Amino acid sequence: MHLDTLRDYCLAKRGATESLPFGPDALVFKVRGKMFGLLNLERLPPGIGLKCDPERGRDLRERFRGVTTGPYLNGRHWNLVLLQDDVPDTLIRELVDHSYALVVAKLTRKERAALDAAPEA
């Protein structure tokens, strides 16, 4: 998957924003101020850090060479998904969806209501 395609996919999520809080090389995707993706723009091969259910994360790391634990990410709840490896684009999109859904599920009722009222991207 190309970086621009992935960026567009992340930003198409309802309420998604992007910022560079860790410097010019780390693009962070958030929903209601909570991070659901971390894209290292200088890493080769490129990869994105995504939140993941711990059991599913272990399974993915066993099945795909391109799913690993990433530096600075809690390996229990986050995976680094390499974009130019053995991980299919459809799975990368599914993992972005999963990460976003996990973050949204942890929002307060008030935050989810505000998110639901936000216009579609």
TrEMBL record:
Q: Which domain of life is it from?
A: Bacteria
According to its UniProt record, what is one Pfam family this protein matches?
A: YjbR
Name the PANTHER family on file. Answer: CYTOPLASMIC PROTEIN (PTHR35145:SF1), CYTOPLASMIC PROTEIN-RELATED (PTHR35145)
Question: What is the designated name of this protein?
Answer: MmcQ-like protein
Lineage summary: Bacteria, Pseudomonadati, Rhodothermota, Rhodothermia, Rhodothermales
